[in-house]
Amino acid sequence: MQHYSALSLLKHGISSHKRWQSAWRKATPKKAYEAIIIGGGGHGLATAYYLAKNHGITNVAVLERGWIGGGNTGRNTTVIRSNYFYPESVALYDLALRLYENLSTELNYNVMLSQRGMLIGAHTPMQMEICQRIANAMQLNGVDGELMSAEEAAKRVPLYNSNENARYKLMGGIWQGRAGIARHDAVAWGYARAASDLGVDIIEGCEVTDILSKNGQVAGVETNLGEIRSDTIGIAAAGATPGLTGMLGVDLPIHTYALQAFVSEPVKPCLDTVLLALGTGTYVSQSDKGELVFGGGLDRVPTHGQKGNLPVQEEVISGLLEMFPAFGQLKLLRQWGGVVDVVPDSSPIIGPIGPEGLFINCGWGTGGFKAIPAGGWLLAHLLATGEHHDISRPFDLKRFAEGRLIDEAAGSGIAH
Amino acid sequence: MQAFTCPFCGHRDETEFHFVVEAGKPRPEPSEEVSDEKWAAYLHMGKAPKGEAREIWLHITCGLYFLMTRDTVTRDILSSECLLEASE
Ligand SMILES: Cc1cc2nc3c(=O)[nH]c(=O)nc-3n(C[C@H](O)[C@H](O)[C@H](O)COP(=O)(O)OP(=O)(O)OC[C@H]3O[C@@H](n4cnc5c(N)ncnc54)[C@H](O)[C@@H]3O)c2cc1C
Ligand SMILES: [Zn+2]
Q: What domains can be seen in chain B, in order of their start residue?
């Protein structure tokens, strides 16, 4: 693998950037693998990387029906944070954040992690109390998080509407300094490149159409490129997961909804943190290119169509303009939607499913980009050992029958 | 903006409707004999069908629960039926 560095950039600059190698090998499927991963989003690619890196298992294929990162990983607004409520969730998301903090070096690929901090802004005394409760929980869980006053918040987000008659005044909120954003494509491509370098086959344009099993043991997959055999298979297919497990007659507690995002034309730096406002439900950050990247809640109609509808657009945009009247002058450049896999307790599902040797990692809903390194780490552990890692165990599907939900929608009250 | 059809009120704005559950999940009975797995399946599990789906929806403004058949990819509405008629 070509090593990326300032020097290599300079060298390739001199040869007009014509000699870069492709970042990962284009592979054609072999007949059989030690492990197969279905889905080449961030979670699937990270799983392949950690299988090779942590467990020395390199005879692995990642099967992606489209192009890698073309699912939610390439459609998300890249907010990374670990300010959840329950200890189980904080352990999970903070593992991800810690791995993110070193990811560019580890992968030799700049994922452009920018820990610019995140404010969850409150606008009523009740929301302030909820923020207090979450900040307490975060500190008990050993994660950086503190309550922020209205004055500090105003300094952090100076363009926020503070007019006397502003509808959603900022009362302060929770601050997590280690939160931030990263480059979504880079996370997918960086993991793909590093996994490919360790021997993993990344196969794009390969759609799994059936999962094969024999005597209660998973045996392989049927694809548009033929049958591929393996007795260890991981599914990391987000909203497509119920369709895949459905082939084995296994239902999941997942509904698929469209989540939309929006990008404005680029402007000079005007917002140097991530803001999620509890009053309007809109969240926003400014990309390195200067675009405002923003979004809000789910479209309320279950769907598999990757596009959003008008009522939510109106809500999100009017929320943004109410908070930042100055942004009303900006043109909207792009708007899009992704199909997210929503679970009743807003927590992921990680663990064995159906026949022996089959495992899932899904249900990340509106917030799984921030979890990619952890999701990959934990699914790799399951595939390699057949056993849960301590951090993934609470997220097993069994929690539904045991009535032991990890209800982050109720706990931390936030969608992303 | 999408319009759905309430069997009672007719075409109305999508914001007036609420998705309730995938259709065809009868409550397991008798309760003493229902295992935790069966109960969890009744409460939570589903198929999230891609393509044609039969679902129970609520028209929030009039309070009617009804059966809607629609395509979850194209968003086409195929039919809206009263639950009483649908169960006959
Ligand atoms: C608009 C939007 C904004 C978001 N904002 C944030 C945010 O700010 N922060 C955050 O943490 N999260 C956010 N998310 C959520 C986040 O994007 C997802 O949780 C995360 O990317 C899921 O990663 P994944 O690898 O599980 O899924 P995906 O990236 O969707 O990958 C799944 C892959 O599986 C492939 N696949 C499916 N079926 C098959 C098959 N049969 N055969 C082969 N391949 C198949 C798909 O093509 C896809 O590439 C957002 C999502 C959206 C849509
Ligand atoms: Zn009605």
A: 3-86 (3.30.2270.10)
Distance A410 CA to ligand 2 centre (A): 30
> Which residues in chain B are closer than 8 Å to A309, comparing Cβ atoms?
1-2, 14
The boundaries of the domain holding residue A246 are 27-80+85-107+184-253+345-411
Mind listing the pLDDT tens digit for each residue in A2-34?
Answer: 899 999 999 999 999 998 989 999 999 999 999
Give the number of domains in chain A: 2
pTM: 0.96
Q: Is A412 helix (H, G, I), strand (E, B) or coil?
A: coil
**Is A309 in contact with B2 (Cβ distance < 8 A)?**
yes
- Cβ atoms within 10 A of the Cβ of A260, count? 23
Are residue A228 and residue A332 in the same domain, yes or no?
Answer: no
**Structure token pair of residue B85:** 């008629």
- DSSP secondary structure string for all residues of A109-138: S----B---EEEEE-SHHHHHHHHHHHHHH
Whether residues A335 and A261 share a domain: the answer is: yes
Nearest to A293 by CA among A273, A309, A308: A273
Per-residue pLDDT reduced to its tens digit, A326-353: 999 999 999 999 999 999 999 999 999 9
- Give B31's DSSP letter: G
Q: Choose among A352, A368, A358, A356: nearest CA to A408.
A: A368
Write the ipTM: 0.95
**Preceding amide of B30 cis, omega within 30:** yes
- In chain B, the residue whose alpha carbon lies closest to the alpha carbon of A310 is B1
Distance from CA of A317 to the nearest CA of B (A): 15
Nearest CA in chain A to B72: A303
